[in-house]
Amino acid sequence: MAGTVEKGVDTAIVTEMIRLAWEKSYDVAVLVSSDRDFIPAVDFLDKKGLKVIHAGFPPKGVDLATSCWASFDLKKAKLPERP
Question: Residue 26 to residues 20, 22, 50, 59, 72: CA-CA distances in angstroms?
Fold first, then answer.
């Protein structure tokens, strides 16, 4: 059952990415995942002129990161200090 739930979430994310792109709601999306299942959606959005940036924890998700316009390592990302 867990695989079915995960696929449902993946489908919902892809649906929203494409719906929001269709509505011209964004120019750049940040996708936090290591799941190769997102590659076709990333490729589709790229062909439509939208950029998808991958945020992840390398080496996991290297195939997805390669498909994206850009990527960054969340382990190395520096968050701003709170005032």
Answer: 7, 9, 8, 28, 19
pLDDT tens digit sequence for 44-72: 999 999 999 999 999 999 999 999 999 99
Exposure string for 41-51, b = 16+ CB within 10 A, e = fewer = bbeebeeeebe
Give the residues across from 29 on adjacent strands: 52
pTM of the model: 0.81
List the chain domain ranges. Answer: 2-73
